[in-house]
């Protein structure tokens, strides 16, 4: 157990039996009252935001979280199978931890996974990925002066919007958080 004064922004705490990540942690000293810590914490499982005031001497449990790079291998039902790049051990990570960005995962890609006592609690894909266009309508010559967009399917099967000059077989950089086209890769 640690004191509330030991907590920092970014720590993972066990709070009311749930794991929460500390988004904001501020020390307050109001005029004639005792000092306290104002915390904004996000539930790791549900994403729900919780606010709480800790006394300076209050005990909190800081969870030991190990975060490492893993290589995405394949999809297996409700799980993604990832491999540790050092020990070559394989782990099943629930798809729900990756969120919406999981649709851009490609075999061999590196992902970030956080474990708390052998249980995966957070997973993150890279912010940008390079994917090949597998299908799109052909570009019409001279139709590149406007900012118009057309639909294109990338190699993971996701449909994104790309500029008119992108052709089938081109590699593009995609933002995994929003699904937006960033640029064409040479």
What does this structure look like?
This protein has 186 residues and is mostly beta strands. It has three domains: 61 residues, SH3 type barrels (Roll); 60 residues, Beta Barrel (OB fold (Dihydrolipoamide Acetyltransferase, E2P)); 58 residues, Beta Barrel (OB fold (Dihydrolipoamide Acetyltransferase, E2P)), CATH 2.40.50. 0% of the residues lie in helices and 55% in strands. The protein has no helices and 16 strands. A hairpin with a 2-residue loop joins strand 2 and strand 3. The radius of gyration is 22 Å and the shape is elongated. The N and C termini lie far apart (53 Å).
Number of domains: 3
Query: N-to-C SSE series?
Result: EEEEEEEEEEEEEEEE
Indicate the percent of residues in helices: under 10%
Summed over residues and divided by their number, the pLDDT gives a mean of 90
Percent range for β-strand residues: over 45%
The end-to-end distance, rounded to whole angstroms, is 53 Å
- In CATH, the topology of the largest domain is named SH3 type barrels
| Secondary structure tally, helices | 0
Alpha-carbon Rg, integer: 22 Å
GO molecular function: translation elongation factor activity
Main location: cytoplasm
Pathway: Protein biosynthesis; polypeptide chain elongation
Pfam families: EFP, EFP_N, Elong-fact-P_C
């Amino acid at each position: 157990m640690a004191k509330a004064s030991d907590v920092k922004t970014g720590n993972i705490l066990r709070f009311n039996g749930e794991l929460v990540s500390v988004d904001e942690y501020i020390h307050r000293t109001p005029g004639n009252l005792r000092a306290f810590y104002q915390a904004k914490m996000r539930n790791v499982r549900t994403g729900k935001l919780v606010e709480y005031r800790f006394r300076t001497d209050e005990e909190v449990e800081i969870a030991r979280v190990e975060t490492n790079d893993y290589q995405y291998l394949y999809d297996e039902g409700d799980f993604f199978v990832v491999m540790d790049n050092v020990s070559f051990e394989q782990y099943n990570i629930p798809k729900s931890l990756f969120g919406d960005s999981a649709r851009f995962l490609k075999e061999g890609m590196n992902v970030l996974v956080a474990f708390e006592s052998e249980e995966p609690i957070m997973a993150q894909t890279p912010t940008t990925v390079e994917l090949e266009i597998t299908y799109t309508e052909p570009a019409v010559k001279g139709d590149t002066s406007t900012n118009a967009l057309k639909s294109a399917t990338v190699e993971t099967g996701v449909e994104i919007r790309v500029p008119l000059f992108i052709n089938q077989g081109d590699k593009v950089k995609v933002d995994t958080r929003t699904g937006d086209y960033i640029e064409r890769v040479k």
